[in-house]
């Protein structure tokens, strides 16, 4: 997910997206623990997407404009 796509979302959408990503990360970790994970790089992608969403949410809290 690109940062400009995330910035186009509303604050409510960001919260929902963050919840979805956290749930997906949990499921991926569960799959990894049970040796059913097909693409281990997906965990890295989801973790980075979570960081991007949190960063943009924090920017909005501080009022930092890009």
Features:
3 helices; 66 residues; Helix Hairpins; elongated; mainly alpha
Annotate the secondary structure layout.
Elements: H1 3-7, H2 11-33, H3 41-62
What does this structure look like?
The chain is mainly α. The chain has one domain: Helix Hairpins (Orthogonal Bundle). The protein has 3 helices and no strands.
Concise overview:
Helix content is about 75%, strand content about 0%.
* CATH topology label: Helix Hairpins
- The helix content is over 70%
Stretches with pLDDT under 50, minimum 5 residues: none
CATH class: Mainly Alpha
How many helices?
3
Distance between the termini: 18 Å
What portion of the residues fall into strands of 2 or more residues? under 5%
How many β-strand stretches?
Answer: 0
**Can you tell me the CATH architecture?**
Orthogonal Bundle
Number of domains: 1
- What is the CA-based Rg, rounded? 14 Å
